[in-house]
Amino acid sequence: MTLAVLCGAVVGAGLFLLARLLLPQRTNVAVLVSRIDAGRRSLRGETLSEVQAVAGLGGGARAGMDRLADLLEVQAAERGWQLHRTRRDLALVNRSLGSFLATKLLAGVGLFLLVPFCWAALRVSGVPLPAAVPLVLGLVLGALGAFLPDLALRGEAEQRRRDFRRVVGVFLDLVAMNLAGGRGLPEALLASASVSDYWALVRIRQSLANARLMGTTPWEALGDLGRDIGVEELEDLAGALTLAADDGAKIRSSLSARSATMRRREMSDSEGQAGERSQSMLVAQMLLCCAFLLFLAYPAVDGLLAQG
To answer: pTM of the prediction?
Structure first.
């Protein structure tokens, strides 16, 4: 009886979520704009990358993944899901919200459906397992599969955010040197961002180029980029440039001081991470020593107990 009630509850919850996903919702301007953007992305021609070709994601599978991503992104917009932290992380790794939601959905459903097949294979092989095992294990693995993309996104975003902060420190030094060479602030910012094709400098360069096309100031573009990807250093830099845009000497000294502060902060963070890793290595060594001592002492203790 308990198993039947639990299965019915799971099936009912699935049907309810499916109905909420498929039934039309009340439309507004944000929903219509989201649908237009989704349709534009679906009709945009793209070239299959080498990684996707190796992974075998091409043709119909890729088109189906894009349609699912567009559908989920529209549904998220219709329901007003903000997901501020997730959107910042996705903007940093240059991924769309729809593709991320599609990955979560497919991972959860895939792991959930994997359990019944394994359970059936074990039952055919003669391994007696209760009927409630696949349901409980499937729910656990499905939740785990839906949560794993979040962990992967957080880890990748934090790593790229640390790299971006290092690049911002170097970028400040380059801007200060260009200002010392007699260039104006907008030209110094664009020239400093054009010295390399590293992904962080490319993002800064694209923001500055978009600001020129849109008729806004470069520091406003840097502030918007910092808010979009969650890098506070860019927001602070934009505020400092806004306040001191008319005084080149003060800008140079301020940029140099900010760069030195960021380097000291990076050094302290690196030393803290090195200390944590040293402590974890010490704990691992202590555990290995204890296990080895137990391995050596077990025969003697077993012999004494046998004699007694």
So the answer is: 0.69
